[in-house]
Amino acid sequence: MGKVAAQIKVMPQSPEVDLDALQERLEQSLPEGAKVSGFERDDVAFGLVALLPTVVVPDEAGGTEAVEEAFTDVEGVESVEVGDVGRL
To answer: Looking at residues 2-16, what average pLDDT do you find?
Structure first.
């Protein structure tokens, strides 16, 4: 079984959300078998910055769903959207 890398766009609830703290909470929320291989930041508008973690998960049924659900439950997260997905 291989692995899949997915870039996920995480929108904070407001520009006042501490992105460093949010990044830590996202990493701590990862389900077993998933890991973050890096974070990018994307200026959206009006001071709002999205976090773009690249998450590596096993290539199995469900793919990134467990990670999406975990990220959605993190304090300070408004929305989660999967972007680019590819096999490693």
So the answer is: 95
E strand or H helix at 70: helix 65-72
Residue 61 pLDDT: 64
Question: What pLDDT, on the 0 to 100 scale, is given for residue 54?
Answer: 97
Give the phi and the psi of residue 11 in degrees, each rounded to 5: -95, 125
Number of domains composing the chain: 1
Residue 88 has pLDDT above 90, yes or no: no
- Catalogue the E-assigned strands of the chain: 3-12, 35-45, 48-58, 77-87
Largest CA distance in the chain: 43
Which CATH number covers residue 44? 3.30.70.60
pTM of the model: 0.91
Structure tokens at 31: 């389900």
Domain that holds residue 43: 3-87
